[in-house]
Amino acid sequence: MKRAAGIFLPLCFIFLPLRKDACASSGEIVVSAAISLKDAFTEIGRSYERKNRGREVVFNFGASGDLAGQIEGGAPADVFASASEKYMDDLDKRGLLIKGTRSDFAANGIVLIVPRVSKAIPLSFEGLKAKEIRQIAVGNPRSVPAGRYAGEVLRYYKLLPSIRDRLIYGENVRQVLDYVARGEVDAGIVYSTDASIRAKEVKIAAFAAEKSHKPVVYPVAVVKGAKDEAAARAFIAFVLSPEGQKILRGYGFREAL
Amino acid sequence: MRLSLQVASVATVFVILAGTAIAYVLARKEFRGRELLDVLFTLPLVLPPTVTGYYLIMVFGRNGLIGKMIYEWTGFTIMFTWYAAALASFVVSLPLMIKTTRASIESVDRNLINAAYTSGHGEAETALRVILPLASKGIIAGAVLSFARAMGEFGATLMLAGDIPGRTDTMPLAIYSVASSGEWTQAHAMVILLTVMSGGFLYMAGTFSKRGV
User: Closest Cα to residue A177, out of A188, A162, A192?
Assistant: First the structure.
């Protein structure tokens, strides 16, 4: 008897986490969200769980392009929140979203940041031409929306192709932020909301003119095949509610027009 | 592809030089902390490459222990250059070289070494003309293995060198990049190429260590 317990007790611990998965249909949803939303959505998730006892939100943060790729590949996401219309449109075209669930919930701005300790500070985007600015971090335009916007901004200020060989690509916008915060690069282009996350280590050198890039709008939608469509819809409704919007404002996100 | 070969070749040259020297010391010298040193050099073999990458950033980053000095004197930073990719590959493939070489140096017949010494040859000469030639099987096998490992290095490289198109996007990084943006056909070709090449290297390493040169 004792021996049996010795064998089975550890097994219980192994299978315990699985049991939770097994009842995932009772309100656990997976939200794949742009990594720029990390702090705001984590708080929104906590708030939502407090309001809806028994419901649980699991987040998967990453570059919107990577997340869209995962969803196309069949990753079990219930909600997709993108930092750009492009990747939402891609999924829409492939019929991977539930019709009528898509709405824009936030907007953002693009800024030029530099390490707080930096000596050579470009005071404008044009300042990036200076010789002292050797490395500039931007998101990889392949999958990182912030990188696409950065490319548009650099073209608008006529900095491309002249500074192209100074660009260092990050796999997501928070990596770009980290490169600047650690002082590995001289400057970086991120969302204004990111800059305030690590305000101790980075400072904003310039705001990109609004006409210099496509509007940064965040759409959200329910993914087709969601395990719990009702819970997914409820989460989106919460993001759009005054309470969800207030949290987003708190992190510097603007209202989507 | 070209970049991958370049990075792996440079890394392997340094791995052979440093690895053989370290393996020789570990195999032939008795001193305090020898096994500790061995553990230290072997760690990258078992540590997650991200941990190795983290240490490398702490040492060679622009604000790292050594990186800061280099940056302040020369304005050069190894971060995000192909040198960083080579450095990462060097560190993770070094243990393979040390392990195989140390084992083969230790298995060299003591009598032959002692004979060389008694016939008046110094340590350097004995090492170069007796020990290393006799251990050559293991050294070559180690070099081939290290090269294969260097070709496949991903985690530490991504952390230290980033994924910069045309500069640091070695094959493993390029595969990650195209696969995560959904371009599976491109990834497909590279995956097959890398698998075939790595398989070939393993086979080579196997035949060398059995038959010798």
Answer: A188
Which superfamily is assigned to B2-211 in CATH?
A: MetI-like (1.10.3720.10)
Mean pLDDT of A15-36: 67
pTM: 0.81
Side-chain half-sphere CA neighbours of B90 within 13 A: 19
Please report the DSSP string for A90-140 in residue order. Answer: HHHHTT-B-TT--EEEEEE-EEEEEETT-SS--SSSGGGGSTT---EEEE-
Amino acid identity of B158? L
The ipTM, to two decimals, is: 0.74
Chain B, residues 145-164, CB within 8 A of chain A, namely: 158, 162-164
Q: Which residues of B touch A139 (CB under 8 A)?
A: none
Contact A69 B180 (CB under 8 A): yes
Domains of chain A: 8-107+216-250 (3.40.190.10), 110-207 (3.40.190.10)
Task: Give residue-wise pLDDT tens across range A201-236.
Answer: 999 999 999 999 999 999 999 999 998 999 999 999
Which of B61, B79, B181 lies at the smallest CB-CB distance from A142?
B181
**What DSSP line would sit under A176-197, residue for residue?**
HHHHHHTTSSSEEEEEHHHHHH
Residues of A in contact with B177 (CB under 8 A): 140, 142-143
Contact A65/B75, CB-based, under 8 Å?
A: no
Q: How far apart are the CA of B75 and the nearest CA of chain A, in angstroms?
A: 9
Tell which A residues from 55 to 74 touch B, by Cβ distance under 8 Å: 65-66, 68-69, 72-73
Contacts of A232 (CB under 8 A, 6+ apart): A29, A78, A79, A101, A222, A223, A226
Euclidean distance between CA atoms A196 and A204, whole angstroms = 9
